[in-house]
Structures are given as structure tokens and as C-alpha cells.
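Checklist before submission:
- one chain only
- standard amino acids only
- sequence pasted in full

Submission:
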Amino acid sequence: MRRFTLLLAIAVLATGALALPVEADPPPRPFHGSLAGGVTFVPAEGCPIGLQTVSSATGTASHMGRTPMSAAHCTPTGPAITGGEMVLTAANGDTVEIVYSGTAPFPVPGQPSTIIADTSFEIVDGTGRFAGAFGGGEMTAYISFPGDFDPANYPWRATWYWSGTIDY
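Returned file contents:
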């Protein structure tokens, strides 16, 4: 009888161990932010019109605190923005790496206006606590076009707003 009770106890413990819940990955976290800075254009041999749009700004991002941003993509020949790359840097130096694409109307020379760039972004990696990060969302940039492309007017003032998710 003792042997049966011992075997039954072992079986119950083994079955109970198998039934322990497995910890699931945490759900993606909301990822929001806003930045203010500028946009300029620099020569770039690999781009169709020989220019690259380069942006830099500072603002805040959820999970990151005060956040400087740098971004670049080939200056488009039409409304499509492709191949954009952005880096956000957290207050402690950890980074989130993003790729983006979208659309922005080409401004009409001689008519100062606000260019609205609507883009989708994907978080593709990071460093520090964001190593291996992934996620994505939507981002909108509002860029003040001064009415001409004179480099004396660079950088063009701009703001960026985004909303999405991040998993790290």
C-alpha cells in the first residue's frame, strides 16, 4: 500500500508540474511620440535626383523620455517616400531603429505651404533594452515649405507625431 501511495504521489506531482502555466510574451506596448526639428537636403549619389532628405529633431517618446531623432530617405521624384531610416535615442543612450515609407505631395514652387507626409513605420531593432525590438504604426510629419528650394532657407521647420506599438 505504501508503494502504491508513493507512486500515486509521484504521478500527481509529475502531472501537476506539466500543468504549470507557461509565461507568455508580454503584449506589445503603446508607442507614441512627438518631435520638433528641421529638414534639409544633401547631395547623395545613390538617390534618383541626387538628393537625400535628412531630418533631425528632439521631442519625447513613450518608453524613451527625451528623444533626439535622426532620419534620412532619398528625396522623392513624386509623392512616394520609400527607403526611410530613422533612429530614436532614449535618454540613457539606448536606441530604436525604424524604417518608414509613405506619401507627401511635392510642393509648388513659389507657394509657401505645409507639406503633410503620411507614413507607416516598422520598428526593426534597437540597442540596450530595445535590442530585438519590433512593432510599428503610423507617423505624420508637418513640414513648413518656405516657397523655394534655396539652401539659405534650410532647415525647413518640421514636426513629427506617431502612434503605434513596440515590443521589447
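Reviewer check: Helices lie at 2-18.
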